[in-house]
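Handout for the seminar on molecular recognition.
Each group receives one record of this type.
Step one: identify the two inputs.
Step two: read the structure output and locate the region that could contact fructose -6-phosphate.
Step three: write two sentences on what you found, then compare them with the reference statements printed after the record.
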Amino acid sequence: MCGIVGYIGQQQAAPILLDGLAKLEYRGYDSAGICVFSPDGFCVEKTKGRLSALSELIDDGKAITGTLGIGHTRWATHGAPSHENSHPHLSTNGKISVVHNGIIENYLLLKDYLLRHGKTFRSDTDTEVVANLIEYYYEMDGDLLCATRRAIEKLTGSYALGVLCIDCPDSLIGIKKNSPLIFGFGKGENFIASDVPAILKYTREVVYLNDGDMVVFNSDSAAFYNALGEQIEKKPEHIAWEMSAAEKSGYPHFMLKEIHEQPKALRDTISPRIRGGRVVLDDLDLSPDYLRGIRRIYIVACGSAYYVGCLGKYILEKTCRIPVEPILASEFRYAQPVLGDDTLVVIISQSGETADTLAALREANNLGARTLAIVNVVGSAISKAAHDVIYTWAGPEIAVATTKAYSTQLSVIYLLAMYIGDLLGTLPEAEYKSMLKALQELPDLLSSVLTTEYLDHIKHLAGELYQNHDVFFIGRNLDSATCLEGSLKLKEIAYVHSEAYAAGELKHGPISLIEQDTLVVAVAGVPELFEKTMSNVKEVKARGANVLGLTTEDLEGEIHKTVDRYLLVPKTHPLLQPSLNVVPLQIFSYYMALARGCDVDKPRNLAKSVTVE
Ligand code: F6R
């Protein structure tokens, strides 16, 4: 949600800002703008719509001269997407220029105060308040650092900010709280950005700023301050992954590339954690005594990560015999959860920055629970705030709709389940060995699914089915959780209304929605429940439904008797089967979206990293 880039150095800033913003497009946005410190003062250019429109407006940046600047892609919160509401925002006298990611919750109060003190506003945004507040304090003593510090002390909410001042032609300020911001050390040039891909072309040495941190920098040096205003040392972290990880590399869309990257992502996540025939979680600092004392596990997350939690309930309860409750992060804080030192709270997040998830994590910490985060982005706020972290090694996920991060999150659930189940003695050795074998084989099995022939088959099915407006996903047990993900994928990228139900629930209400030719996707991957799911299929078929079935290869001879069309996946250990079942659903949504002419990687209204509550 919103992307920020800031640059100071010897090169022309505008093309670098545009390039950086392009790398942040995945975050979701509806307008874009830059402010460059040109020889004539601030040159601000912004526009509603895609970044390509801004690039065109300023001749790919060549129309603007200057080696210091800030850029922004805005995902509208306060005020519609428009030229006026686009960032950067200038203060009343035009001396301060600000880009902002986050939400200033008390902006109306501050705006009122500033209006009474002669400041004027051109936009509906909360960000303009920040620019004017800095100006207000700057006018008092002419110290930009001090003015910025005083201004942010007045803000409640979340912010990552880039700040320029017309009187400081060789410095830039970055500051953050509850929204991501990194600093990049270049040679004779320095950067701030919302995420690594924006600056990876120029530097691999980055600092992940903590909440309250401020960086004041020029082209050769940077001074870091903590929330108390004390100067602090920051050691850069080296980014090892290649730029190609954040590029399409010949694929038409990031989503398709990331679907294909799943075997590697799984291998990278699983392999280092299996040694000597056991699951080894070096990442964890949980003592065996603590684990033996756990009475309840909460899994807290949003969206697809929450659906991994729904699968996690079945998997962890079966292997560890501990009650597991998946709960949406946006609900967790207000549910007055019963937490204590015998409760483990597992937080799942790809970005590690999701505002609701972060807030839930902090609440769990405050209430005395042990928190364990499963996170993809190293150095993210969630990874820093949790007691323990297990990283998913999916690499950068750019498509808004998650695929490989989801798969790796699920693989960490397997690892965790086996690790705890083994320790508690609730997972018999033979079952442990069988799961371990299946887990090690999973990446190759997944590769075997991702053939051109298989994808073409699904594309063909999507070609036949893309005009359906209402789709119902049904499945039992683990499959009911996979259905939630399949349904979300279809909604978010193909804009098809779809719902997911536990198959046995249909007849308790939703079956009244089934009409002639309503598309029902029936996932039947739990062997002992296959017949029961087929009974539910017969119920919808009796009401005219058109059924696309999904099951394991060994049941082809059975499923074809009941459904209209079907998809098959290889059979694996029953608890690991969801890892394979979800893949054709991802591919199906992808081709449905293409057939419906949707922008697969950047679906409307959505942002990759949801940094507001
Ligand atoms: C759906 C999707 C979202 C995310 C959710 C949580 O494809 O990607 O539902 O799963 O916004 O995001 P993270 O995992 O970054 O906390």
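Reference statements: The longest strand covers residues 31-38. The pocket of fructose -6-phosphate is lined by residues 302-305, 349-351, 354, 357, 401-402, 488, 492, 609-610 (CB under 6 Å).
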